[in-house]
């Protein structure tokens, strides 16, 4: 009986790390995603070959900010392409006549 309890406890302890990895909520970034992000950053003027080691954080953060602004502008342009939504209006029936 004691060996059964020890075996069960050992099985639980060995299975715990494997189960903890299965609960990871964030998936790893793929090579295609990294490549697309680099292409997007280069589209706003970032050049990784041009930068200096000391300026790297400033260069990449400035490029990320420009990319964010570009994406916001694209979203606004896409929303404006359909025109202004305005206030909802319902019209039906005849025009109101002045009271006598």
Automatic annotation (TrEMBL):
Organism domain of life: Bacteria
Pfam families registered for this protein in UniProt: DUF4148
Keywords: Signal
Region (Disordered): 72-100
Signal sequence coordinates: 1-22
Protein name as it appears in the record: Purine nucleoside phosphorylase
Organism: Burkholderia lata (strain ATCC 17760 / DSM 23089 / LMG 22485 / NCIMB 9086 / R18194 / 383)
């Amino acid at each position: 009986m004691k060996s059964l309890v020890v075996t069960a406890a050992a099985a639980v302890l060995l299975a715990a790390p494997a189960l903890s990895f299965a609960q990871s909520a964030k998936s790893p970034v793929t090579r295609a995603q990294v490549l697309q992000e680099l292409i997007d950053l280069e589209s706003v003027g970032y050049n990784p070959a041009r930068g200096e080691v000391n300026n790297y954080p400033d260069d990449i953060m400035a490029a990320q900010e420009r990319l964010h602004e570009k994406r916001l502008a694209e979203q606004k342009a896409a929303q404006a392409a359909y025109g202004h939504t305005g206030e909802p209006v319902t019209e039906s029936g005849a025009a109101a006549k002045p009271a006598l």
